[in-house]
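Lecture notes, part 5. Sequence design as translation. It can be helpful to think of inverse folding as translation between two languages: the language of shapes and the language of residues. The source text, in structure tokens, appears below.
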């Protein structure tokens, strides 16, 4: 039934998070570092204020980079790529940093992707904002690699992975905001939320408005929530929470490793 429904949809937006890389063979960074608290500490902007946290953060980043380099796009990535080639995918908002959506094997998907939390295949200079290719071997030990561009010795900064850290604003905030505003003006007939509980307020507000717009003016739209557990936002939020504003939310409990293949088969 889902397959037939989605065949009629021409303007689709997808918001994705953790379940896509996990199904591609990339470990959840929270499990690799022990627990959620420790992983949050390692992805905090204050990590770079002392040597030991910087060293631990570099180790974790190298591990994630290694997993990502060995991973392959999932069936769902290819399904989204097909949607992009058919000009049916308006946008993929990706909360993952593994850059799988930018993989050269899925070029149509790459062009439609907004990386909300940054990209692990890119490094950025904290002094001037210059972008460079992320080289894992450079990020070892207690000090980040220094970066010097041009002949002026005074303009020296250090490189860090272009990954959004706790306690900082996104360097791409203006571009992301522009994408949000643009997509809210588009005629959307399908919204798929994959592997995220939408705990970030700005993203949650955007998705809430997006789904409201999709269901306005009598449109025959569908909003679908795909996650390992049902959404928990209702008990965290006010009565105008996203779970109520969506009117109808389809929840698929994707728990097995092949869950994204099942998801793709349902839709394709």
């Amino acid at each position: 039934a889902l397959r037939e429904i989605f065949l009629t949809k021409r303007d689709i937006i997808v918001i994705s998070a953790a379940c896509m890389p996990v199904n591609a063979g990339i470990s959840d960074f929270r499990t690799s570092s022990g627990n959620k608290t420790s992983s949050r500490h390692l992805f905090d902007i204050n990590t770079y204020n002392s040597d030991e946290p910087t060293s631990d953060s570099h180790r974790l980043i190298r591990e994630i980079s290694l997993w990502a380099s060995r991973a392959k796009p999932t069936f769902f990535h290819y399904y989204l790529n097909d949607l992009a080639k058919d000009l049916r995918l308006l946008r993929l908002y990706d909360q993952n940093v593994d850059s799988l959506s930018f993989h050269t094997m899925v070029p149509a998907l790459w062009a439609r992707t907004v990386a909300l939390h940054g990209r692990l295949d890119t490094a950025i200079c904290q002094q001037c904002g210059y972008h460079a290719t992320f080289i894992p071997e450079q990020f070892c030990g207690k000090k980040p690699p220094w970066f010097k561009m041009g002949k002026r010795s005074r303009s020296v900064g250090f490189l860090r992975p272009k990954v959004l850290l706790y306690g900082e604003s996104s360097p791409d905030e203006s571009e992301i905001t522009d994408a949000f505003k643009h997509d809210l003006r588009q005629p959307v007939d399908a919204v798929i939320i994959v592997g995220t509980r939408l705990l970030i307020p700005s993203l949650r507000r955007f998705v809430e408005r997006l789904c409201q717009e999709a269901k306005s003016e009598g449109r025959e739209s569908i909003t679908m929530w795909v996650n390992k557990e049902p959404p928990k936002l209702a008990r965290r939020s006010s009565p105008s929470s996203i779970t109520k504003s969506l009117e109808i939310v389809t929840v698929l409990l994707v728990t097995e490793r092949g869950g994204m293949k099942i998801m793709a088969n349902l839709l394709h």
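The translated text above is only one of many valid answers, since several sequences can fold into similar shapes. The chain has two domains: 2-26+72-117+169-267, 28-70+118-163.
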